[in-house]
């Protein structure tokens, strides 16, 4: 018998299961299971905005990951960017909790 492989649309890498991260990823998952079907599949990036938010919160915590996701949704609108936009594996030291506006520049190079 062959072992079943885990498949899903969200990031499967290791992450600390802190209360904030569980809350954030839970809210993203709730959105994916309920509202996402009504809004449609119109994201201009890969991974989609909700997949990006899930991974950003899982990797960087609710505060930093939430700001990364917020600015990613802003880039997805009309006149925004498109293409592959992965979550940064590590964040710069200049991205601190008291300066959330700096997260707008925390993107990977090479976006469409």
Structure description:
The chain is mainly alpha-helical and 112 residues long. It has a domain of 68 residues. 41% of the residues lie in helices and 4% in strands. The chain contains 3 helices and 2 strands, in the order ααβαβ. The protein has a two-stranded parallel sheet with strand order 1-2. Helix 3 links the parallel strand 1 and strand 2. Helix 1 packs across helix 3. The longest helix has 27 residues. The chain is globular and about 35 Å long. The mean pLDDT is 83.
Question: Can you tag this structure with a few keywords?
Answer:
112 residues, mainly alpha, two-stranded parallel sheet, membrane, Membr_insert_effic_factor_YidD, Putative membrane protein insertion efficiency factor, cell membrane
Quick gist of this model?
It is found in: Cell membrane. This protein is 41% helix and 4% strand. By secondary structure, the chain is mainly alpha-helical.
Number of strands: 2
What low-confidence regions span 5 or more consecutive residues with pLDDT below 50?
none
Order of helices and strands: HHEHE
What spatial order of strands do you see in the largest sheet? 1-2
How many DSSP H or I helices? Answer: 3
Lay out the secondary structure:
Blueprint: H1 19-33, H2 36-39, E1 45-46, H3 49-75, E2 83-84
